[in-house]
Specification:
The complex is a heterotrimer of chains A (171), B (330) and C (504). Chain A is mainly alpha-helical. Chain A contains seven helices and no strands. Chain C has a two-stranded antiparallel ribbon. The chains are: A mainly alpha (171), B alpha/beta (330), C mainly alpha (504).
Chain lengths: 171, 330, 504
Amino acid sequence: MHDKTRRLPGEAAFSLALLVLSLWLTTIAFGISGFEALSAPGTFPLAVTAVMVITSGLIFWRTARLPAASHIRDWREILPLRVVGMALMIGLYAVALQPLGFLPTSFVFLTISIWLLGRTSPLYALGISVLSVAGIYIVFRLIFTVLMPEGVVPEREIIAWVQNLFSGSPK
Amino acid sequence: MKTKLLGAVTALLMAAAPAMAEYPEKAIQGIIQWGAGGSTDVVMRSITPHAEKILGGSVVMQNMTGGVGAIALKYVGAQAADGYTLLMGAENPQLYKVMGLGDSDYADFTPINLIARGVPLLVARPDAPYNTFAELVAYIAAHPNEVKFGSTGPGGLPSVITAMLSSEVALPVIAVPYDGDGPALTALQGGAIDVMPAVLGAAIEGIRAGRMKPLVLIDTTANPALPDVAPITEAYPAYAKYLPWGPFFGIFVKNGTPDAVVDKLQAAFGEATHNPEFVALIEGRGFSMLNLAGEDARSFLTNWQKTTAWLVFDAGAAKFSPADFGIARP
Amino acid sequence: MMDSLHYFLISWFDLQLLGLIALGTFAGIYVGAIPGLSVTMAVSILISFTFTWDIYPALSLMVGIYMGGVYGGSRTAILLNIPGAPSAIATALDGYPLAQKGEAGEAIGISTVMSFVGGAIGIAVLAIAAPAVSEFALRFQPRDYMLLAILGILLVGSLSGESLMKGVFAGALGLLIGAVGLDPLTAQERFTFGIIDLWGGISFIAVMIGLFGISEALMQLHHIDKLAIKQAISRIIPSWGAVRKYLPLSLQTSAIGVFIGALPGTGGDIAALLAYDHAKRVTKNPEVPFGQGAREGLVAPESANNAAVGGAFIPMITLGIPGDAVTAIIIGAMFIHGLNPGPMLMIDRPEMFWFIVGALVLANFFMLLFGLTGIRLFVKIVELPRPVLIPLILLLSIVGAYAVTNSLMDVYWALGFGVFGYFLKLYGYQVGPVILGVILSRLIDENWRRAIISDREDLGRLLWGTLSSPLSAVLLASVILIFVSQTPVWGMAGRGWRRLWGRK
């Protein structure tokens, strides 16, 4: 979908940002051990960042001289509201994961995003979310014993309680 | 459904009043400081099922690697001191302070059990022109900066052993770093390095097959697994002051964990170390069983730290002086 | 000989072992398909789980999971452009375009059959030539590993898409990402800014999930209203003609796979990428261009990564040296079960070798069976409406990133790289070279340093050492040859520059 003979909105800024990033990383790479020795821990990072500076510089120079893409006028065509919204949603999800715990966060995240993206009935979104979260929980937590953040739900107590229920022996 | 809901509510109430219930009332998390398949991992995964039976609870083990083990230490240090998070680690944290890898070590943790200790030794390529430590020293003196020693970075076992050996004899060698003793021993068999300070357990199979030859045991007594190899103190009694020394494996909880919980864990893991299958595994891999808890474990840890931190510092491999952290010279 | 055959067939006539291998292979396919669940993880959980079992049933389950898991990674790579495992990265390059054309069923079919071929070659080499191969693999010196990794990084040329310059930048960025963390050789901090969580480096799986899973899902939001692509699932099992056509390529790339798998320190991920590059070089006129759904681009990595399974067992069984992360854990499991993996294992317990070979053969057959039968259900996943599918991919990506090391840090990385990857893709950069760089970073860095330290910081000595060893000289020659064939360094400066900028 990218046309290399035309410059998209934001493309020049992006390539400039990459150049600045490369320059900054080079100064950090230099700070690791300088030009101390061929085997120093900083030698490889320096070589790599040098390549990044050269290539990103050339890319920026080249991009800046491209004619702007005339058929795309609107930012929204390359960065639709949906993309920004979803990126924010997953950002929020990551922030809430630790304090609230895996189960409630995932459930809310799925329900809201399916509901908004699909413009479907909330009930449909709710149903799909319950099924999916349950599925993921069973595979990751119960079978593969990945301890997801528990947050407000005392999962380990509940699991121990259910196990006791099945083993039939009161503690 | 109704009973399950009821159960959830009860569980909530139980969580609110932890003192009421008997430990362990939920799964215990065991954080293994090193990667899957390594010595620490193997030892922990084989002792824990025995301890689980005695405890009457389950321990869910996870490998949390990175930062020479510092990430696992930091993680366990950040959890509640309730005995539900165990640190299953090796000796490395005792050197973090002098190596500049953080300001925490095992002083912030209560030892549940120091399980076993590795016996270090020097191994060489089978076609190397020396068969004993004395011959190696002579060869190095005649060919300075030619013999390639494997290493695992500053603070790793090879660096400590090299520092210890250098304290009595001159060892001008090239130290080639690897990310662990496994890859370094592989390189030894391929001829990329000449000598490797390793633990007996990692080298024993290669020695049995004649793919590497033992030069000397860095210990005060001969080992039943390799009865023909002399301990270093036979020819060089000066090393006795550092020995016995070796990397160790231990299980820890954060300081401040209730005594009742610590006692229960210590009893369970202490009993598990006597399991015949586990004993066979430890001995088969050439480790020496320690089974230390309480004050014995504390003093072992302190002594280990004193000896090692100063050795590493005197060899110039440490970032900070042990004196900065109140670690007395032994 | 009769003894060997007897040991080989132990698992074939024992219903319990047979069942466990089948179960393991089946579970492995799903473990492999879900990003974040890895074979390494599954096998290390199995260690505690099978603790009280005998060694045969425990090994049966592990071997099955391993075989199935390496293959399973291709499923999500083809269907969703999210490689379920690192060894399936190359599979996504041509597999996903096929799914977008509605040919996912056929793509899965051909990759299943070729995985089987690769698996069989790997096992055959293991059974016939294990001691010889492992002796040869041991001879690789640090400089040889470095040259091999440089050979790998030259693949950037094949993965760059529209502009080689952008590909080189992306590759260098990947190498840098791989260098973050405490330097494994000196414990010096690199790009960590004093943050302890960065000491362990940036998890490579988190980068992969971000660049492939999350950024792809964000990209898909552009077309949220489009109907899901209907997948033709009538032609799943490839025709005999197709198999015969791709067989030579499959055999060549299987050979690459076995050998890279047998080298300690390199595994299926590097094997698959090198195989993809090989396919691109030897296929003169593909029916469909590479990157747009070339069958050759599926055949090569899928043959190679399953061949690497047999390869990884070679140094493990003959010398007790792990060929990759999974075999390292299996070695641990063998210790726990009272065996002593090492050079003596073949002599002390010859039955273990033939038992593993027999179990691998069975797992390979089960993989073919389950691979060709469960496709319909899998393909249904891509036919889910996008408003449901995209949030699910995002959720699974986050959970997967978390599961790798149980840390939120990896989740943040995956998110960061997801958004970054969105812009990279938008502006015509490829994400493949970034991943390639991350995979190869440590291999290049560490072995370069080992090599130069061994030669006392003397470049002249290193060069002389390289030229005087036949193995290193051949590797160096291949590096130079491929470099020259891909980049315009000699003469034709003008034409070269145009090619450099405007590759198509």
